[in-house]
Amino acid sequence: MSATTSTTPAPRTTSHAVGSSILRAIRLGGLRIGYEVRAYFRQGDTVFFTFLFPVVMLTIFSVSFSQASFGQTADGDDVSAAWFYLPAMLAAGLLLSGVQNLAIDIALEKSDGTLKRLAGSPLPVVSYFIGKLGQSFVTGLAQAAVLLALGFTVFGVPLPEEPQNWLVFAWVFVLGVVTSAILGIALSAVPRSGKSATAVVIPITLVLQFISGVYLAFSNLPDWLQNFASVFPLKWMAQGMRSVFLPEELVILEPNESWELPGVALVLGLWLVVGLVLARLTFRWIRKDS
Prior knowledge:
Elements: H1 14-41, H2 44-64, H3 81-111, H4 114-119, H5 125-153, H6 163-187, H7 194-211, H8 223-229, H9 233-245, H10 261-282
Helix pairs in contact: 1-5, 2-3, 2-5, 3-5, 3-6, 3-7, 3-9, 5-6, 6-9, 6-10, 9-10
């Protein structure tokens, strides 16, 4: 009697399936970015209060204080209002594009049933978040380009010539926009409904702008308020932007007479981790009480 042997195909490893799932999530996330950006620019109120608001404020401050000097360079040139406020508006734009926009947007999507419909669709959760992060990055980058173009062409703000300054701008921008976006996702859990989202989120971002050296010179604030503002990321984003665009002579206006770039990276990194933890704990496709 001859023995016959049968061969069975070895089970496919799961690594291929995992890799395919990751690639699919990234591909869908990329498509979602396009959808999110288009939806963003179709909302007139959102575009004004997040995208154009820093542009409008830079214009108002530049015109209102056009005769004022906010310091002098080593060559004796006056630092104009537009020059002084440009980095502040760049930092504010990161906060608005990330925290304010996403917190309100996601709260509305929870309220109107959008997230409930997405929960029943094949869209991976990762792709949804890629879309939101991508939207913040694209709109924040476009906003920064508009602010820089306005400052340079209309108000004569000198832009940095040293490559290392632009490298600092790049990492402050990327770290700032990602941190703001993650915090916006986490903050979206706070409003109890879509109708209350604007009333809850906008006062938070507005207060942060006033105490973080955006509308008021940070050095003019009382020490206790400076210490309080230093807990939050916007103060550090504004300080990082000032280190890029303001002349070195104005570093004496900083609390420790230093731009403290390692501190900027550290605080933003810590808030990024905090935001990730809070978003992981609080985000739901559907509210628990719905």
